[in-house]
Design brief:
Blueprint lengths: L3 E3 L14 E6 L5 H12 L4 E5 L6 H11 L3 H5 L2 E5 L3 H11 L7 E4 L12 H19 L3 E6 L10 H10 L2 E4 L20
Parallel strand pairs: 1-7, 2-6, 2-7, 3-4, 3-5, 5-6
Helix pairs in contact: 1-2, 4-5
């Protein structure tokens, strides 16, 4: 089992150095806010690849962050190579393209969301995920690779192994302290008395 750390106790987005390897950020919203802040900070140093698998890339947020860090945010935004993937097939194709010796950091937002598609058979999804994971680890040998993931819903039970597989391949796993309930019936509300 890989070490887990809390994103709330570490100032991850302002970390000055990242080493090569695979880092998984796991939390309620896939650590989207932290990931986008990290994209902004890394883009100050040069090219950054951002692959959005869960429609979480808020480039307005990135631009706002950059405005506070540089006098020319437009020029720095050009360092961000954004790709969006809407299917697991697109994720695999983009990661296989990126993994061929890219010396720039790679950030993947909400990787698992496209692999949960019920129109793709579980065994095919698993096979495609293995290809994606192979590409991520290949890219991680020459650049930092940060992948975010969020808790899976109970209806994704046949694919829960993908999350564990991702975590087991990571050099580090950063977890948020408080995770939301995965089902509506797990929500507990405080009781108030009428007195």
């Amino acid at each position: 089992m890989k070490p887990e750390r809390s994103l709330f106790t570490q100032d991850f987005s302002s970390q000055t150095t990242l080493s090569n390897g695979l880092l998984v950020v796991f939390g309620a919203h896939g650590g989207a806010g932290l990931m986008l802040d990290l994209v902004a900070r890394l883009s100050l140093r040069g090219p950054v690849y951002l692959l959005d698998c869960g429609n979480r890339s808020d480039m307005y947020r990135v631009a706002r962050t950059l405005r506070s860090l540089t006098d020319d945010p437009v020029a720095i935004l050009r360092n961000i190579r954004l790709s969006r993937a809407f299917t697991c097939y697109q994720v695999v194709a983009l990661l296989e393209k990126i993994s061929s010796g890219v010396p720039a950091p790679v950030l993947v937002l909400d990787l698992l969301s496209t692999f949960m598609d019920e129109s793709v058979q579980v065994n095919e999804s698993s096979m495609l995920f293995n290809r994606a994971l192979h590409s991520l680890t290949a890219a991680a040998s020459s650049a930092p690779v940060i992948v975010s993931a969020k808790p899976l819903l109970s209806l994704s039970t046949p694919r829960f192994g993908l999350l564990e597989q991702l975590k087991s391949e990571a050099a580090e796993v950063w977890e948020e302290n408080v995770l939301p309930p995965t089902r509506l019936d797990e929500i507990q509300l405080p009781l108030f008395s009428g007195d």
